[in-house]
């Protein structure tokens, strides 16, 4: 049934456009009669808009990370472009779109535009990415090109996203009720973002892929646009008329303190989000699901808080005072989250998180995330509508007012996100960042509670109010700063298992936070060193781990006949890179590591195990995302070895896609080899099958080498050749027997490989014999990044032995793989099959 039309006629075409800031003081006619009845429908549209926006955000970030890399610098460029577009859109709408355009029609076409941009990014990014890979590279030129690519892909759609709320604000009356409605729209948009975050992370990308997720978001945009057009036809719109400014009228209070305060609120929000994400991902396990839960928890709090702030803004209570109170409480809420993250939760029993049912674990993780972030998120959410109410005036263009508040908040968020991730995290660490955030919240409170820029009557109220407005937040902040504790070494070292850690397990001799990850080194009572990253032991001097690390390094250089140039992706403890570096035939070794802190820590503590590889003159350490380096490099290598994070770690799947393995193969010289470490622990059979099947697709002649524990599967090395050149066992033995290979022989002997035959007897199975076991395995591609979703549900798994037994059940001896004397080959076959 059509809504009742407004009785007020639209202004004549000759009506001049109102000068900025001079609007007649009356309710917007679009809301006066039918607006209240239609507002719930508009709110529903904004919920859908937020849902689509988060789906796009997650998809675009994954697509662009695959191209420009996942290093902190690349993410910073990506984030700056994304949020910069939001800033431009929020501030520019009122300056570009005339006020006489129906706001709901403008909103409709903005949504249509976002959907079209979503399709354009999806379809055109492969071409832009190909151009980037062909031209882009490292250094300042590569960095600038990354920014250009992000701007081309994201600037237009994010500008449109930033313009949605300012556009609709012109349909809302500039009264306490109308301003509260804007807060409801902001809150609804945020709650829709929660739905989009969970929908994308737990269904669309887990079951389908980035293309399917994008099409869902585009469909949502289309429905929203159609709904907004219908609403625009259901109600007329007549913009307010200009009126002369009364010069005798008392001046309005300055809005700059409110804008600065809401900007600082955005800064604390994104800074704290960076810290929370780092610490919670350590505590809960750095899976893609954990990141979705953390983001959803923060957005949920902001959405609920926005509704609460909107209700408060409708009362006679001063919104500016309420905004100041929110900032005071925010300082306490940040201190609360720090107390939970540093003192309580890491050492709380985590049995529920280790449940065999993934959904039970996710629910437990969500509760831990909510109790940590919810208090502060509620206050950030409430701050936005209160800031809107504090600056809103009935004689101002609401689109301009909303745009200024939105832009200030977004600008603060940009500074907070970039400053924290690029500078403060490595320079100050989580403890000091949270302390600075507490002080920043106090400064924000002082700005709006003290009579800065206030009307003369308020300034004359006396010094007591001013002193109280300054002292109360300042004293509270100083008291709270002292409660923030350092990050526990157990949390950095053992992540979800930190509650079980005891001092008797060993002492942490180094704990550090870098731009991309947190690193720890511990020493056990028996002298064993552990290298910790991503909340677990990634390498150690334990015999079983050293065996794998050196096995990976030596296979990499002994399989090819002339390994002059070697690429190592992932420094870790440096043992694999060190084993490769001591091969006399290696003339240059490039090690790519995403976190600068890793090589510094390992060079200090693991030198006796990694051959001092960081200081080796033929070694170059490059700080970059391994995928980005390889795919933009013009060099070719005789050997490439990949030692990434566990596949369940968010981002690790990008180093195990079909496209990445094909690129690696293309970067191999004739006779070259690629080797990859694959753990079997904390992995389900379908996850292992996915990773191995993806590798074998690129390298059909692939081989699996086993590092066994008690004759059971523990972890693996995959190897693939650029061609089918066999391994000449006699030639390798002759090579290793030369005097200049003494360090190689010593390295092999120290982990139980007394001869070359012992090393190659770790042969487990060839790819051709696993066709039955790999049947139906899901390939990990750039389009779906399926591996991280499969692996993210298997942290509780203990199936390594069963996986190894099933994958080798049909193995045969690969007569094509080795060449040499018949006697030696037969002895090698027997040794391999006896394990």
Question: What does this protein structure show overall?
Answer:
This protein has about 850 residues and is of the alpha/beta class. It folds into four domains: about 20-240, MFS general substrate transporter like domains (Growth Hormone, Chain: A), CATH 1.20.1250.20; about 255-485, Growth Hormone, Chain: A, CATH 1.20.1250; about 490-535, no CATH class; about 540-835, 3-Layer(aba) Sandwich (Rossmann fold), CATH 3.40.50.150. The chain is built from 30 helices and 14 strands. The strands form three sheets. An eight-stranded mixed β-sheet has the order 7-6-5-8-9-11-10-13, with helices on both faces. It has a four-stranded antiparallel β-sheet with strand order 1-2-3-4. The protein has a two-stranded parallel ribbon with strand order 12-14. α2 (about 35-70) packs parallel to α4 (about 105-135), α4 runs antiparallel to α5 and α6 packs antiparallel against α11. The longest helix is centred in the first third of the chain and has 34 residues, at about 35-70. The model is unreliable at about 1-30 and about 240-250 (pLDDT under 50).
């Amino acid at each position: 049934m059509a809504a009742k039309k407004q009785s007020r006629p639209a202004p004549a075409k000759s009506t001049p456009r109102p000068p900025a800031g001079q609007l007649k003081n009356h309710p917007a006619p679009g809301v006066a009669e039918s607006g209240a009845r239609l507002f719930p429908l508009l709110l529903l549209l904004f919920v859908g808009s937020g849902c689509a926006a988060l789906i796009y955000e997650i998809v675009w970030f994954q697509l662009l990370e695959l191209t420009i890399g996942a290093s902190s610098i690349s993410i910073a460029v990506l984030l700056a472009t994304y949020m910069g577009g939001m800033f431009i859109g929020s501030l520019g709408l009122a300056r570009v779109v005339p006020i006489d355009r129906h706001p709901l029609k403008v909103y409709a076409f903005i949504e249509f535009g976002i959907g079209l941009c979503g399709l354009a990014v999806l379809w055109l990014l492969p071409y832009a990415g190909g151009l980037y890979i062909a031209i882009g590279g490292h250094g300042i030129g590569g960095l600038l090109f990354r920014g250009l690519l992000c701007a081309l892909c994201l600037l237009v759609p994010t500008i449109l996203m930033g313009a949605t709320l300012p556009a609709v604000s012109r349909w809302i009356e500039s009264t306490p009720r109308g301003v509260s409605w804007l807060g409801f729209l902001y809150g609804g948009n945020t709650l829709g973002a929660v739905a989009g975050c969970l929908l994308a992370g737990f269904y669309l990308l887990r079951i389908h892929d980035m293309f399917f997720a994008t099409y869902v978001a585009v469909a949502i945009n289309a429905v929203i646009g159609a709904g907004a057009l219908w609403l625009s036809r259901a109600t007329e719109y007549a913009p307010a008329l200009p009126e002369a400014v009364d010069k005798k009228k008392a001046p309005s209070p300055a809005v700059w303190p409110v804008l600065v305060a809401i900007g600082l609120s955005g800064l604390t929000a994104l800074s704290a989000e960076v810290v929370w994400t780092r610490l919670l991902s350590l505590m809960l396990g750095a899976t893609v699901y954990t990141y979705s839960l953390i983001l959803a928890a923060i957005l949920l709090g902001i959405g609920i808080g926005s509704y609460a702030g909107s209700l408060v803004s409708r009362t006679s209570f001063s919104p500016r005072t309420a905004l100041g109170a929110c900032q005071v409480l925010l300082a306490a809420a940040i201190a609360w989250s720090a107390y939970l993250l540093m003192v309580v939760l890491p050492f709380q029993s985590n049995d529920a998180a280790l449940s065999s049912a993934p959904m039970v674990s996710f629910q437990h993780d969500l509760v831990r995330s909510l109790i940590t972030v919810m208090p502060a998120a509620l206050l950030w959410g409430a701050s936005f509508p209160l800031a809107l109410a504090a600056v809103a005036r009935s004689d101002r263009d609401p689109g301009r007012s909303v745009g200024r508040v939105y832009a200030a908040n977004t600008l603060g968020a940009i500074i907070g996100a970039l400053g924290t991730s690029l500078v403060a995290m490595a320079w100050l660490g989580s403890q000091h960042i949270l302390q600075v955030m507490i002080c920043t919240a106090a400064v924000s409170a002082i700005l709006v509670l003290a009579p800065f820029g206030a009307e003369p009557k308020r300034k004359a109220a006396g010094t007591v109010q001013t002193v109280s407005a300054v002292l109360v937040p300042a004293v509270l902040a100083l008291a709270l700063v002292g409660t923030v504790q350092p990050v526990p070494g157990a949390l950095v070292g053992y992540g979800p298992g930190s509650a079980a850690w005891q001092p008797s397990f060993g002492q942490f001799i180094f704990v550090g936070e870098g731009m991309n990850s947190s690193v720890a080194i511990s020493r056990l009572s028996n002298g064993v060193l552990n290298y910790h990253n991503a909340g677990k032991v990634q390498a150690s001097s334990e015999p079983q781990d050293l065996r794998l690390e050196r096995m990976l390094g030596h296979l990499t250089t002994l399989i090819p006949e002339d390994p002059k140039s070697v690429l190592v992706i992932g420094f870790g403890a440096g043992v694999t890179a060190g084993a490769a570096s001591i091969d006399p035939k290696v003339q240059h070794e490039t090690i790519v590591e995403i976190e600068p802190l890793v090589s510094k820590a390992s060079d200090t503590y693991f030198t006796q195990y990694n051959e001092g590889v960081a200081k080796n003159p033929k070694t170059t350490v490059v700080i970059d995302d391994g995928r980005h380096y390889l795919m933009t490099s013009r060099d070719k290598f005789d050997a490439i070895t990949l030692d990434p994070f566990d596949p369940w770690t968010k981002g690790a799947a990008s180093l195990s896609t079909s496209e990445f393995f094909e690129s690696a193969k293309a970067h191999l010289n004739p006779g070259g080899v690629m080797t990859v470490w694959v753990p079997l622990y904390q992995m389900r059979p379908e996850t292992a099958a996915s990773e191995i099947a993806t590798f074998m697709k690129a390298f059909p002649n692939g081989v699996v080498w086993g590092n066994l524990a008690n004759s059971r599967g523990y972890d693996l090395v995959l190897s693939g050749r650029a061609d089918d050149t066999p391994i000449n066992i006699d030639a390798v033995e002759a090579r290793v027997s030369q005097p200049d290979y003494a360090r190689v022989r010593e390295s092999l002997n120290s982990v139980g490989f007394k001869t070359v035959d012992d090393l190659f007897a770790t042969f487990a199975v060839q790819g051709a014999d696993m066709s039955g076991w790999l049947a139906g395995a899901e390939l990990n591609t750039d389009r779906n990044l399926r591996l991280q979703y499969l692996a993210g549900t298997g942290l509780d798994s203990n199936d390594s032995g069963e996986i190894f037994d099933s994958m080798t059940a049909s193995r045969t001896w690969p007569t094509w793989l080795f060449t040499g004397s018949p006697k030696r080959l037969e002895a090698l076959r027997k040794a391999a099959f006896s394990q």
